[in-house]
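Annex B, item 7. Sequence and structure tokens for protein A, then protein B.
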Amino acid sequence: MSCFFSSVLKLPSTCLVTLAFSPGCPIPILSFQLTFVGVNLIFFPQHFLGLAGMPRRYADYPDAFAGWNYISSIGSYVAVAGLAVFFMNLIYAFAKKKAAAQNPWGEGATTLEWTVPSPPNFHTFEELPKFEDGQGTQKSHG
């Protein structure tokens, strides 16, 4: 699931840099939050069930465990809703192709990927770019 969470959070930046269009800004955040809450609702109650003595991988369980299993089932629906929002946003971003600004993160974003046009040209740099770190030392990227 951590791969999925990082993918959801990386989607807006990836669309901006490589495809030059942006998905809806609050939508990836909503997708992440729904999926995060859903996954935690799925697996956190399982800890209580294990402490109460329920064995793992049982299709049928005593009624004493029904409450926590119900909460875990609700979590699966919340996580699926988060996935649905993620895929709807992905389809929306590809369908609308809303043009991204040259540097949509503002003036504070001065890293190398925001100094080139979006999408970047093939063979953007003829030689490795040079930059200064915080102490004034020149370094080569690469």
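Protein B:
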Amino acid sequence: MKSWVWFTTTLSFLFLWFWNDIVPSVVAGDENLSPNNPAESTSKFPIRKINRTAVIISGQIRSANLSFATAEIIPSKQTHWFGASDPPTPAASLLQHLIVHLANHTGVDVFMYVTYDSEHANYTWNHDIGNYNPSPLDEHAACRIFSKHPIFGENTDNHFFCLYEEEKVLMTPWIANYTLWKNCQHRSYAEQVLQQLYGMYRANQAAIEYAFANDVHYAYKVRMRPDTAIVKPIPDIRTFDFHSKSSADCNSHIYYAYLGIFRMGNPDWFNIGLASDMDKLLNRYLDFVYDTFPASLLKVSEWILEQHLSVLMKEKYNICLSDHKDIWMIVVRKYGHYKINALQRQDHHGDWISINRR
């Protein structure tokens, strides 16, 4: 009888220790994880391998590290919302209002893909973000804009992976002649389209490979651009209703930024969803180069990339894209920003050449 009393007493003690010390570090709110309290936040993370979140970052750096107070960015009603007590840059807002929360709630691994032009291979950055060009010599400066944060410290289970890769021409004469480009509004800069989709694909492939190699399971994935800013903290990703039904009778939903905040937003600037659904969105590069287009797009006189994304996800996978009222995201432009011009190929390196009858 005494041994049983000792056992139950010991078990109760262990339970109270677990509940008071370990559980809060897993389920507590953001007070346990904030940029202002890194010492406390980085010491309480358990090792979490399931139901994690992967963040995919790709695209041009542009305004990521520009202060909202600088005269270099184009002012707007939304940029004026950022005051002295708010994150000072778009990158800081993404960290504070999104990535830190993901780290606290699920654990987070970030995969950032950056390309550099061979013309800038020997370029040394003078740390003026206004004239930044990625280069292998800058020691991953673009990625460090996001990765230099306590949540990626040695005592956490969060990771930040960065890949700098020389930009390769992706458009080939065969791809250029695909019928899918015939009615595309963006045909004149199809190379840039492929570069954008390829960056998302490469970063997501890294996430998939890392998960397999380390026995990690991602329940959620987030895709974002470096030149976006989040106005207010995004809710716990575990509270999003990704399976809600709608009039379109979708199997599930992928959400993008609330159009009531930034009506110029597009469905492909920021996306959040279940990992299994997001894999289909992030691998859209393969739909451009290896698969046929949704039949409805081949019938319209002109289609745009955002339309392709929405139609592809609905017709091929029965996944609907919807804006979400709790995602307050904007795009921050800097002066000198211009629409992408057509990229003229300077050579034909990498093309398959027919040598029969030669």
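Comment on protein B: Residues 1-11, 13-43, 339-345 have pLDDT under 50 and may be disordered.
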